[in-house]
Design a protein that fits this description.
Layout (H helix, E strand, L loop, with lengths): L7 H27 L21 H34 L14 H6 L7 H13 L5
Helix pairs in contact: 1-2
Length: 134
Amino acid sequence: MSPTGLDAAAREQFRQLLQEMKRTAADAVDARLHGDGEHRHDEAGLPLHKEETDDDAAAETQRQADVAHLARTATALHEIESALARLDEGSYGLCIDCEEAIDLRRLQAHPAALRCAACQQQFEGHRLRAGGRG
């Protein structure tokens, strides 16, 4: 049993789950960037929605949605990679702030969690007070 309270079987289950999440996120990025392969934005590989509508504002809104989706997915991929690295290091399941074990139910709900629920709540409260920064 590790300091996190996770046995080898549980760690392997989380590894498989995280790897599946990584594949799903990578597939989502690929689908967003390549779309149908015909209508792509020259710079980022994003679909050119202007060909789908004669409304420039609607096309720009969709392009912004594509960029936002890619940003969220890139963040999720980073969190997943970080969780996989913590698995390799043996620190997966430990809160990065208080260094206590993260509750198993939290890990099951959010396998890439960095913090226990109490520290996450404190972190989010601090970010809100700082105006969303940090």
